[in-house]
Amino acid sequence: MRLNRATAALALAATVAAGYAVAQAIFPTPSGQTTAQGTVNMCPTMSGTFVACGMPGAMPLSVAIQQASPVPVAPSAYPASSLPVTNSATGTTAAVVATLPANANRTTYICGFSMTATATAATAGAATVAGTLGGTLNFVEGVGATGTSGAQVTNQSFTPCVPASAINTAIVVTSFAAGTGGIAAVAAWGYQL
Fold first, then answer.
1. Residue 122 contacts residue 144 (beta carbons within 8 Å)
2. Which residues of 120-180 form beta strands (DSSP E)?
3. For 138-152, what is each residue's pLDDT tens digit?
4. Cα–chain-centroid distance for residue 79?
5. Helix (H) or strand (E) holding 83
6. Listed residue (57, 38, 56, 37) closest to 46, CA to CA
7. For residues 51 and 12, what is the distance between their CA atoms, to the nearest angstrom?
């Protein structure tokens, strides 16, 4: 069966729209036509051509090219129609709080947090994430000793992101109190849907 030019152009457009090509026997490269046996994953380049994935100039398969722009754009990490939210706070000797706000018409989700703390003496204690579905989440946060171990970092990512217990409920991330000579920071991020 012979394909006419319009059918071939439509097939090529579908391949380009998909972002990469698979199982082509002949594919264009910057140096011309190359024959490949078996399956070859082709990735787009910044110039709009395709090369074998992993070759110099190939964009990762996770990068999408928007039709309105030749500039590659990473796909959004947030669900469609969601509103990203972040909050951070700093403090000294007492507990530090970062709050992802409530929204009257949406549920807040936490996708992660980071806590950094140092004080005169190294210690550890309970950090919490409150307002989440199923109740408060508890974590152990380390506090490093200034001048010896340095600041300790506690990072937590949630996959999937954890929802608040109800619509219009804030999610509150609270660090352990660093203590004498303390310096601490807390950051939280998520979205509302």
1. yes
2. 123-130, 137-145, 152-163, 171-174
3. 999 999 998 887 889
4. 12
5. strand 83-91
6. 57
7. 15
Domain membership of residue 78 (yes or no) is no
* In a shared domain, residues 119 and 186: yes
| Domain of 132, in residue numbers | 83-192
Residue 58 Cα to chain centre, angstroms: 21
Instruction: Decide which of 33 and 56 is more confident.
Output: 56
- pLDDT for residue 180 is more than 70: yes
CA proximity to 163, closest of 141, 182, 138, 137: 137
Rounded to an integer, what distance in angstroms lies between the CA atom of residue 178 and that of residue 151?
Answer: 10
pTM above 0.85, yes or no: no
Structure tokens at 44: 């787009």
pLDDT digits (tens, 9 = 90+) for 93-122: 999 999 999 999 999 999 999 999 999 999
Domain-ending residue, one of 52, 73, 94: 73
